Amino acid sequence: MSTVVDQEGNNKQQTVAVIGAGIIGINCALELQSLGYQVTLLDKEGIGLGCSKANAGHFATEQVFPLAEFSLLWQMPKLLFDPLGPVALSAKHFIKAIPWFMQFFNNMRPTLRNKNKKALQALNKNAIHHYTALLKAAEAEHLISLDGSLLVFETNDRTKVELMYQHYLAAGIAVKLLDKRQTLELEPNLSNNINYSLYFTDVAHTIDPLALSKTLAEFAMCKGMTFQQTAVTSVTQTQSGVTVEIDEQHLHVDHCVIACGAWSKKLLNGLNYHLPIEAERGYSLSLPISAAASALLSRPVASAERRFIITPMGKTLRLAGTVEYAGLNAPANYKRAEMLKGNAAYILKRLPENEEKQEAWMGCRPSLPDSLPVICQAPNHDKIFFALGHQHLGLTQGAITGKLIGQLVTGHSPEINIDPFCIRRFN
Questions:
Q1: Which CATH number does the domain housing residue 395 bear?
Q2: pLDDT above 90 covers what percent of the chain?
Q3: Which of 41, 191, 231, 297 is buried most, with the most CB atoms less than 10 Å from its CB?
Q4: Domain check: are 337 and 386 in the same one?
Q5: What residue numbers bound the domain in which 414 lies?
Q6: Residue 426 has what pLDDT?
Q7: What is the pLDDT of residue 293?
Q8: Distance between CA atoms of residues 25 and 38, nearest Å
């Protein structure tokens, strides 16, 4: 048990507040509770109800390439100003987003991009292994499927597909290049429009992202973690620990982990840290199915040209993707979710037909301009830790992030080099 000696000379169990009950915060709380700390998990909405609720459910360890790449420069004008395109920028948000995009463009430089790629490779390498160990301990192995995923191509010629294939191989990703026949043998419900695919054999998906979050949180609560649904307004380090202000009250703890994703900026500003984070809004459309999901798909299928993904889940087929820069508080544009179904009609021969019960959703991905999260001990606050900004890979990197935060809080050396993830890069 992690203890400290109080003023009377007695051993006292150390306490930790984890702010944010998405998949990142849940994993941090579970790891710290397992290490003997008394953890309080805090969230204004509830467990798993933010960006972790209705995402694509894809443990995308193959995604080691930062989003900032030079080829995007020529596509950006067309992409950004099509309100229903795969990437959209709200006119009202345009001015506010300029500083973020300037840093994003700077990270296209080959030296920075290569450095960021290596950092993502290190973080993703054992990400699924950490999940399988957690889910086995929680007796919830049914929530993860290890059947890999496909990236399918309709119009790209074989030369381009082979170049992409070699690109992944060079990055150490387990991948196979399949032709049309091989692709359709693997997934018979794919459309004849599909000519090639890349089969990522070592990735995974969950049948229910929300159930995954709640199951891990319940596992942590069985170990003694407590949860409070409350808004956090400020965090302050004192001589004796950390004070977390909640609903005009104060929670005093020994340590604090800030893991509230796209909503982290205000708390970090209060601690005098600059965080150039954007709410990269993603949409999903869940289509209920009456038959087993395997009748439609057995693994996630992403479209290279249409830039979205289809994932089979327990009772739904989930269509997810698109990027929208419009800030945290703008109303959702659910036409962006509806258009996913039109795209799916080009990818699948057969879609679920019950339109009345389909469910559209929007969540704010916490995106930083270099595609790396912030995972570190606060440079000027030794009792405060950051675990945020995981952009498209929050689900993927949840368990490894929890492990790293546990190692930092206990004063052990992290299992990978976390220097690239420090907040210092922005301060």
A1: 3.50.50.60
A2: 82
A3: 41
A4: no
A5: 3-51+211-275+371-426
A6: 96
A7: 45
A8: 15
> Among residues 84, 54, 72, which one has the least CA distance to residue 324?
84
Which one of 349, 367, 385 terminates a domain? 367
Tens of pLDDT, residue by residue over 120-144, are 999 999 999 999 999 999 999 999 9
pLDDT tens sequence across 328-348: 999 999 999 999 999 999 999
CB 267 within 8 A of CB 234: yes
CA 71 – CA 62 distance, rounded (Å)? 20
Could you read off the pLDDT of 3-20 as tens digits, one per residue? 655 555 557 899 999 999
| Residues 220 and 314 both lie in one domain | no
Q: How does the average pLDDT of the chain come out, rounded?
A: 92
Based on the domain organization, do 255 and 358 belong to the same domain? no
Q: Amino acid identity, residue 389?
A: G
**Residue 315 reports pLDDT greater than 90:** no
216 and 241 both lie in a single domain: yes
The number of domains in the chain is 2
Beta bridge partners of 200: 149, 175
3-state secondary structure labels for all residues of the chain: CCEEECCCCCEEECEEEEECCCHHHHHHHHHHHHCCCEEEEEECCCCCCCCCCCCCCEECCCCCCCCCCCHHHHHHHHHHCCCCCCEEECHHHHHHHHHHHHHHHHCCCHHHHHHHHHHHHHHHHCHHHHHHHHHHHCCCHHHEECCCEEEEECCCCHHHHHHHHHHHHHCCCCEEEEEHHHHHHHCCCECCCCCEEEEECCCEEECCHHHHHHHHHHHHHHCCCEEEECCEEEEEECCCCEEEEECCEEEEECEEEECCHHHCHHHHHHCCCCCCCEEEEEEEEEEECCCCHHHCCCCCEEECCCCEEEEECCCEEEEEEEEEECCCCCCCCCHHHHHHHHHHHHHECCCCCCHHHCEEEEEEEEECCCCCCEEEECCCCCCEEEEECCHHHHHHHHHHHHHHHHHHHCCCCCCCCCHHHCHHHHC
**pTM of the shown model:** 0.94
Provide mean pLDDT across the span 267-290. Answer: 94
